[in-house]
Structures are given as C-alpha cells and as structure tokens.
Design brief:
six-stranded parallel β-sheet; 14 helices; Rossmann fold; 357 residues; binds uridine-diphosphate-N-acetylglucosamine; 2 domains; alpha/beta
C-alpha cells in the first residue's frame, strides 16, 4: 500500500515553496500526497498548478501579537479549523504530516495530535514564527534552517537540516530571462523582490529613483499582487511583475545583483545562486524582527549588504546599490565558500524514518 503524507503551510509563499520542493521528490518515492490549506491564501493558488495533490481547505484565523478586534473572533476560527483538520486526517489516515508553518498549519498540527499522527515542522527563520511556536509542543520533530534556532526548540525534537532550495531554480537560463523581459544583454540587471507579497516601501523608494538607476541598470521588479504601476508599464529598461512562477529561475539567472527583503527562503536561494544582495529586512515595528536577524547573519558571513528600513532614503538606497555592484565579486567569492547542504535529502530521510514509528 502507498504511504500517505499530508502537507500544510501557507499565508505567504515562504510557507509554501518548501512543500513545492518536496512534492516531486515524494512522488518519486511513491508517496500519495494531499494538502491542507486555507480557503483564500496564496497556498491555494500555488497548489492549483500542481497535479495529483488533492487540496482540502479549512477555516483559519490570524494569530497576532498586537491588539485587534479580530483577536476575539479568530480563536473560534482556529477551533473550527482544528475540528475540520481532525476530521480530514481521521478520514485520510496519513502516515505523517509535514508543516511549513504559517497560521493555517496550527489547526492541522493540533488535528494530527488528536489523531496521534506524527508531525514534522520546518522553521525557516532564526527565531520561530508564532504559528510554529504554538505548534511545536504538539510536533514530533522540528527542523531548523539556522543552527542557532535549536536554542528555541525544547527537548530533543530539534534537528538542523538547513535551507531547502527548489531544484528548478538551478535550471534557470539567463537568455530566457532577457527574452522574457525584452532586455539587452550588455547592460547589468538588478532584480528587485519585496518578498512573496511585495513591499510597498521598497516599491516606492525604487520607483522614486528609477531615472537614475535605469541609466546604469535594467531593472526587473517583482512588486506583489495589485502593486503594478500602470504609468510605468512602458518604461524603458524597467519590467514589473506581480508574482512570477515558472519564469523565476530565468530572472534569477539573468540578475547581476539583487535588492530584496530578507525572507529566509529568498535569501538562501540567492546565496545558492551566488547573487550579491542588498537586503532591506522587514522592520521590527511590522514583524517580530526575524528578517533583521536573517540579514545580520548573512551580513556577518559576507554574503550581503544590509540597509535597515529606518535608514532607507533615496541617497542611502542609491549609494548601497552602486556599492554592491562595484564590490559584487567580493560577495560572490564569499558565497562560493558557503557549505553546500542537501537539506531536501535530509528532510526526505526524516519523513521516511518518522513515518515508520
Ligand atoms: C511578510 C512576512 O511575513 N514575511 C515572511 C515570509 O516571507 P515570504 O513569504 O516573502 O518568504 P520568503 O522570502 O522566505 O520566500 C518567498 C518564496 O517565494 C518565492 N517567490 C517569490 C516571489 C515570486 O514572484 N515568485 C516566487 O516564487 C521565492 O523564490 C521564495 O521561495 O516568510 C519567510 C519565511 O518564513 C519569513 O522569513 C518572512 O519574514
């Protein structure tokens, strides 16, 4: 009989792409796969493009660290989601559940715990997100991307596996990127990515400096859903996309340097592809500060330059981009020294091992 796994995770692409990396490998090993996600999150859209993975939607509530009237309603949504997840798991009888975190994963981990199904959580950031923090006591194993995260995992559940990078990103073809953007090959390319949901702050400051920057760079800008500026659609040497799926490997291959938020998956992808980065982490005011820690750790290793949002201005942005381009070889050399880490194989081995108990 085929072994069954249920994957979960969502809210932003950072909580889905690891699952997308696992799916082809799990199929190769003969697993039957299904997915539990939310009704409207990005995970639903991303999974709709994947064949043979049934998707079950459940109710989910946002877990916040700050006051909001929805904080009174959302615990009930999480309870409803837990009951739904419990029933799906009871019916589907998976051997194991793998969670990439995000709010939707909490009811799933709880539903698995009530069904006594083993669960593996993967945490991408240095400090665990709120959803993973809540779910950890109920999980069988907690895999981490940064070794220092093990300090935050109680007991002997924590396992360092490293960052999972999708294999298709290695298959990028710069020529296809140039064609897709209609860029010329002679002029350097700056790739700008404000995280999977886009960043208004980065979009605004980039566009305010477009004239100066496009005199030296061609710019491909992933700006997030609903953030295309219609006045700039025909701007020479500037190409905007809301979100890129299949063509992303080609855009990354084409880029000489990158300006990005410091989401864990994105920065490890740029590291693996040896792309010099200027990182503008999400500020402490808007998050728990995990991206600042991610970026600091990369800066310490000499992989990136970092500009904190409080210091972001037209002048500081331009200075940092030109400096990054000038010193690009230094960053590439440092990144070449980083250790290769086959996190995907480690995860697969762990999934197989944990599902046997
Ligand atoms: C605002 C927020 O909560 N951000 C968090 C979220 O970021 P976010 O969802 O932006 O996550 P990451 O930067 O980690 O990953 C984004 C993923 O989406 C992919 N991608 C992106 C754009 C695109 O057009 N196409 C595409 O495929 C990237 O290649 C990458 O694999 O999860 C990360 C991982 O837990 C955290 O570090 C971030 O702090």
């Amino acid at each position: 009989m085929k072994k069954k796994i249920i994957l979960t995770g969502g809210g932003s692409a950072g909580h889905v792409t690891v699952n997308l990396a696992l799916i082809p490998k799990l199929f190769e090993q003969g697993w039957e796969i299904s997915y539990i996600g939310s009704h409207t999150g990005i995970e639903r859209e991303l999974l709709s493009k994947v064949e043979n993975v049934p998707y079950f939607a459940i109710s989910t509530g946002k877990l916040r660290r700050y006051f909001d009237w929805n904080n009174f309603k959302d615990p009930f949504k999480v309870m409803k989601g837990t009951l739904q997840a419990y029933q799906i798991i009871k019916r589907e009888k998976p051997d194991i559940i793998f969670s990439k975190g995000g709010f939707v994963s909490v009811p799933v981990i709880l539903g698995a715990w009530f069904n006594r199904v083993p669960t593996i959580i993967h945490e991408s950031d240095i400090t665990p997100g709120l959803a993973n923090k809540i779910a950890m006591p109920f999980a069988t194993k907690v895999c981490v991307t940064f070794p220092e995260t093990l300090e935050h995992v109680k007991g002997d559940k924590g396992i360092y596996v490293g960052a999972v990078v999708r294999e298709e990103l290695f298959k990028g073809d710069a020529n296809k990127g140039f064609e897709y953007c209609r860029f010329e090959k002679e002029k350097p390319v700056l790739l700008v990515m404000g995280g999977s949901l886009g960043s208004k702050r980065i979009n605004d400051v980039l566009r305010a400096n477009l004239q100066t920057l496009t005199s030296d760079f061609q710019i491909v800008h992933i700006c997030g859903k609903g953030n295309i500026d219609p006045d700039l659609i025909n701007y020479k040497g500037y190409k905007q996309f809301e979100y890129v799926s299949d063509e992303l490997p080609h855009l990354m291959a084409m880029a000489d340097i990158v300006l990005s938020r410091a989401g864990s998956n994105s920065i490890f992808e740029f590291l693996t592809l040896r792309k010099p980065m200027l990182l503008i982490p999400l500020s402490k005011g808007a998050s728990r500060g995990d991206q600042i820690l991610n970026a600091r750790s990369f800066q310490k290793a000499g992989y990136c330059e970092m500009l904190i949002e409080e210091d972001l201005s037209n002048e500081s942005l331009l200075k940092a981009i030109y400096q990054l381009y000038r010193d690009r070889q230094k960053y590439i050399d440092n990144m070449k020294k980083s250790e290769a880490n086959d996190a995907l194989s480690k995860l697969l081995a762990l999934i197989n091992e944990s599902s046997q108990k």
